[in-house]
């Protein structure tokens, strides 16, 4: 038999700061090159023309212009297509 007492449940351990994810520049807003447009976990939104995506899936503006969002169908490796939002800077 084990000789370790039962551990109680702790309720106040979830004390971490929010990750500040989301859309930072909305459609119709003017942006400069390098500005953060979207901070996200995974590629729920994809980078379109005039944008680039960094290692942590943050989408940045590659050129000066105006932000637009468009709905596109993206093909997965299995052949299934899924809807995605594409971020564009014109």
Widest sheet, order of strands = 1-3-6-5
What is the mean pLDDT? 92
Major sheet size, sense and barrel closure: 4 strands, antiparallel
CATH top level is Mainly Beta
Total beta strand runs: 8
Q: How many whole angstroms does the radius of gyration measure?
A: 20 Å
Q: State the order of secondary-structure elements, H for helix, E for strand.
A: EEEEEEEE
Shape: elongated
- CATH topology term: OB fold (Dihydrolipoamide Acetyltransferase, E2P)
How many individual helices? 0
Helicity range of the residues?
Answer: under 10%
User: What percent strand?
Assistant: 35-45%
- End-to-end Cα distance, whole Å, is 69 Å
Structural class: mainly beta
- How does CATH name the architecture? Beta Barrel
Helices and strands, with pairings:
Elements: E1 22-23, E2 30-31, E3 36-39, E4 45-47, E5 51-53, E6 59-61, E7 65-75, E8 81-89
From the structure above, extract its key features.
mainly beta; OB fold (Dihydrolipoamide Acetyltransferase, E2P); 41% strand
Describe the structure.
The protein is an all-beta fold and 90 residues long. It has a single domain (22-89), classed as OB fold (Dihydrolipoamide Acetyltransferase, E2P) (Beta Barrel). The protein contains no helices and 8 strands. The chain has strands at 22-23, 30-31, 36-39, 45-47, 51-53, 59-61, 65-75, 81-89. The strands form 2 sheets. Strands 1-3-6-5 form a 4-stranded antiparallel beta sheet, with no helix packed on it. A 4-stranded mixed beta sheet has the order 2-7-8-4, with no helix packed on it. A hairpin with a 5-residue loop joins β5 (51-53) and β6.
